[in-house]
Amino acid sequence: MSDVYATRRGLLRDRCAAAGDAAALVTRPANVRYLAGASPPGAALLVGPSDDMLFCSHTPTGESDEGRLDEHLRVSVLSAPGADPAVAAGDMAAVVRADSLAVEEHHLTVARHRALHSVAPGLRLADLGLSVEQQRLVKDEEEISCLRIAAEIADQALGELLESILVGRTERHLALELERRLVDHGADGPAFPTSVGTGPNSGRSRHRPSDRRVEEGDFLTVCLGANYRGYRCEIGRTFVIGTSPADWQIELYDLVFAAQRAGREALVPGAAYREVDHAARSVLDCAGHGEALSPWTGHGVGLEIDEDPQLAPTAMGKLDACVPVTVEPGVHLPGRGGVRIDDTLVVRPEADGGPELLTITTKELLAL
Q: What is the rounded distance in angstroms from the CA atom of residue 126 to the CA atom of residue 105?
């Protein structure tokens, strides 16, 4: 993997050189991990004209929450208490006589930006913008493999929950059990706070689990994800508790399922982000649920659970192959509940079989 990280930093170096910047300072944790293999707390990565160095306040641990550092990357552990790795990196850029430094203005605080300028007043500071995020958009097969394993873990955890007794248990209890099962099956932890919604809470986007207990006849909506080696996936399913579903539950479920299928089928290289959103959204809009829909149909996943691209009505851009995204339409009826179906997929050309479904738990409306 060391060659992979060096290649990634080389691409960033070339982009900076094309923009007239001698070096780049990367501080956003996910971006540091993408380029260095690990992101110790507060670390800053200097991608120099010819050499790169990671600055951090503590010696990298190699633990799963940080990642495993590129063994060929130089590391500077700051000895002074309270020293800022970003400022130390800026000082080094001045030492190697870089005349300009591109920084992630969307991540640096104003105070850190001022500190950089004060430590190296002769250094011209430019905006690196979203250059690293744009590099992260298309995943290599090693990254997709990590996402695939994360999805398998999430599927396993969810499958085991479905085999247990659910009536009488609280949303909060079920969410905690799911997160424990994720770790039991090899996850570094949950990819995001697990959402469990029952009855009138079902179908709500990113619902925070409450002390409401599962009852017979409820819709049960679960949304969870696993973090495996820093890569995060997402799955969401809706079930009925105890009895055969009511007619309105079947009708609503079939509607959301049709919307989700339309969104999945639209995931082809070259498709506009907004086209994917429209494919799913129009199914629900035509059924009269347009005003209550989420502002997006899906989003990219990777080292962060919510990254580009955004599949939304006003999103600009087109899909590339090997971009992992979620497709997660849902409908919530106030006071009654609702349905949400969420998958993680990888965009693939039709010649390769079309979009690759990573989360494979059944989407049949099960009565548990």
A: 8
Burial grade of 8 (CB within 10 A; 0-12, 13-18, 19 or more): buried
Angle, helices 29-36/2-18, rounded to nearest 10 degrees: 120
The rounded distance, in Å, linking the Cα atoms of 197 and 205 is: 9
Alpha-carbon separation of residue 152 from 194, 221, 298, 301, 307 (angstroms) = 16, 19, 20, 15, 21
CA neighbours within 13 Å on the CB side: how many for 357? 15
Distances (CA, A) of 334 to 43, 147, 262, 338: 45, 34, 25, 8
Instruction: Specify the pTM.
Output: 0.95
What would the two tokens of residue 359 be? 């989360």
Q: How confident is the model at residue 1 (pLDDT cuts 50, 70, 90)?
A: low
Q: Which of 298, 227, 219 is nearest to 260 (CA)?
A: 298
* φ, ψ of residue 312 in degrees (nearest 5): -140, 160
Residues 249-306: pLDDT tens digits? 999 999 999 999 999 999 999 999 999 999 999 999 999 998 878 899 999 999 999 9
